[in-house]
């Protein structure tokens, strides 16, 4: 019998108490050398077949193993999701795993937050953080790097010979050489010095390097992009539907440089809307698996940061040749929809076209025109009024079927020439934004329905039902706040919208929106049709932004192949086979981009709030925990009132109700409560804002 089999048999026979290395050595006798025994034990441990607990080895029951990606908190604990099960990993059970690592965990006794299963990591299958970004600090004989990502609670030791002339206060990129749990430290060497921590732009550079966001294109891509010709041949125009005489406009934000979409509209005597939505025909210029396409696929999407944009496509394409700029001929992929007065699409057509946009409008201009009923010419007035009327019809129809319409705020950071924040503008949805939003939702639904009915290979945008456990918790909280609710589990989307509508006149309206949003699962891409819960849409995709989203570009290729009856060509078959991997990759890249964009905004908000230290503000409690409560200000800044600073009583945390209650006074702090706070401290590096209650 081989040593491996002997060891596993011995451990199985001693499953209750385990066996130490010495006990195994004694049982195996002289036939097995100490070196061979150690090798076998190490291999079996790495494979997750046995585990070491308090110097004794135990067999691991295979049926209780789970594989997933570890998501850590900045307090040491974390979660993994495996087989649609969320598993809580206490800090003591992390076993050296870091955020993003692929791990194998086993179930252990106990219950985690929300009744979740408790697990223990027994093997790290793949390290996600081979390179780490952080602040360098010089010590006597070595240096240390403190990771910028607070989900990585380890310091990295840098031997003096590996410092690359870094100085205290430099932000650096480190490559890990030695992984160890000893004193929660790793060892590595510096491969790049990004810059001084307070230099302009270094804060955003840190996030970019930490998220491994590409900042430059390959040489092959740049050469290929430079060779793309801007002109459109007569032959190309002749084979397309020529819509250059159709009155067309783009409507975007004032800062927009890449124009994905344009719109045209007419209303007939019967009240039917004839809507054209024109989308940049990026697929005409970017062939599948060419260098530009490979770089675009790597990125997955454009990333919009407060001080820069990381485009998915090179400038020549994103801001020029593909962009639907006014008064120039552009190739488009257009969707025509004939819509009845109730918002139903009665007919549609998808075609390759050539267009010439008449105007580049901004949301701000359209909003002013609608508000003041003041337009530069009659044709423009007709278009804007018709689009506005259609958007109202489409919104009413969408909401009636159960589509959710959350009320959220989006901070826009205004920077000075040194990239320092000087103003925070809170943007909310406007009529002009609704016009474009409704048109794009309808277009995406129409294209998805066409491909679904054709039974063609497709990339869908799906949104699954909310997490039942999260809904139970939120349901109890909403009852405490006096909302008319019985149970949210299994509820139709219309129930959620009714709660959102109920909150509109109440002070905690944004909080309620936020709570319900947290319960929602993340929308993602899938090659399999599964519907979209949030939009209450049977068929949905992303078709309308191929300049800045790779999945949209892939959808264009799939639709073209179907319409041209080329789905059985080698190129189309190759694309169809890749859809599952592309969907997963783009979903992951989207999450990375959203995370980077949020953190970049958080950094700038913290920078802005440093000049407000000592100020008193009105805010709303947005979160309650055992260590205090969070308060959100009208400008979207959020900070903590720590429980140690509530000196008028001893407060206990009631987890089931997310409530802090004073033992002596009965005074309480709950979600949605209005409070007045004083700003006492801001830590830019930790992304933390500290408040105390104002007198």
Features:
695 residues; alpha+beta; Arc Repressor Mutant, subunit A; OB fold (Dihydrolipoamide Acetyltransferase, E2P); five-stranded mixed β-barrel; 18 helices; 34 strands
Structural summary, described in words:
The chain has 695 residues and is α+β, with helices and mostly antiparallel strands. The chain has 6 domains: 3-59, Arc Repressor Mutant, subunit A; 62-126, Nucleic acid-binding proteins (OB fold (Dihydrolipoamide Acetyltransferase, E2P), Beta Barrel); 131-197, OB fold (Dihydrolipoamide Acetyltransferase, E2P); 219-463 and 525-600, no CATH class; 468-520, no CATH class; 613-693, OB fold (Dihydrolipoamide Acetyltransferase, E2P). It is built from 18 helices and 34 strands. The strands form 10 sheets. A 5-stranded mixed β-barrel has the order 4-5-6-8-7. The chain has a 5-stranded mixed beta barrel with strand order 9-10-11-13-12. Strands 14-21-20-17-16 form a 5-stranded mixed sheet. β23 and β24 (421-427) form a beta hairpin. The N and C termini lie far apart (77 Å).
